[in-house]
Amino acid sequence: DVSVNILLYEGSLRNRVPLCSELGLARSNDARETELAILSAGYRRWGKKLPCHLYGSFAFVILDEDGQLFCARDAFGVETFYYCETDNGVLLYGCDLREITKSPRYRKALDRQALQVYALFGYPFGDRTLYAGIRKLPPGCMLIWNGTNVRIDHWHTLSFHPNPTVSEEAWAEEID
User: Fold this and answer.
1) Entry pTM
2) Cα–Cα distance between 37 and 20 in angstroms, integer?
3) What is the dihedral of CA 69, 41, 154, 90, to 10 degrees?
4) Which residues are CB-contacts of 141 (< 8 A; sequence separation ≥ 6)?
């Protein structure tokens, strides 16, 4: 049996009921308790394909039996997830920037390039933050930390396939 330790979880899974049924779990009256059980059992069953089975908003960190951290963020990026590799080889993470910036292991510094973009557009683009070294995990991505390296992969890619038989006018009316 694979050892799984949930180190961080924020979110709300909309498919709790079917996942409990599929994973053979009893539902608790406490949604968070149920979702933590789903993450543990789901990781044991599906491994790094776990996020593909989740519907809802989430950001989580799982420590597996090999000592790897497996982190994932929901497909639409509703929940935030930040991470930073320190100079001495530690991975800091959290769903709030303050969780990292208040750590004594993080040396506070401004990301001047991100600040320029922020001054122009009102927010930094992509995975940048206003803090040097702190990045946002993009929506639909997973991060794997093996103790020395960060690897980021997409577990979900958004795609748009409009019905070609519907006219542009009909789409405009539907949107209105």
Assistant:
1) 0.88
2) 9
3) -10
4) 72, 73, 152, 153, 154, 155
pLDDT 10s digits, 65-123 = 999 999 999 999 999 999 999 988 899 999 999 999 999 999 999 999 999 999 999 98
Of 4, 9, 80, the closest CA to residue 41 belongs to 4
Contact present, 44 and 25 (Cβ < 8 Å): no
CA 127, CA 139: separation in Å to the nearest integer?
10
Q: Exposure string (b/e) for 19-58, b if CB count within 10 Å is 16 or more?
A: bbeebebeeeeeeeebbebbbbbbbeeeebebbebbebbb
Residue pair 110/130 in contact by the 8 Å Cβ criterion = yes
Q: CA-CA distance, 110 to 19, in Å (whole number)?
A: 42
d(CA 38, CA 119): 42
- CA 126 to mean position of chain CA atoms: 14
- Residue 24, token pair as written in the block: 């053979």
Distance of CA 110 to the CA centre of its chain: 24
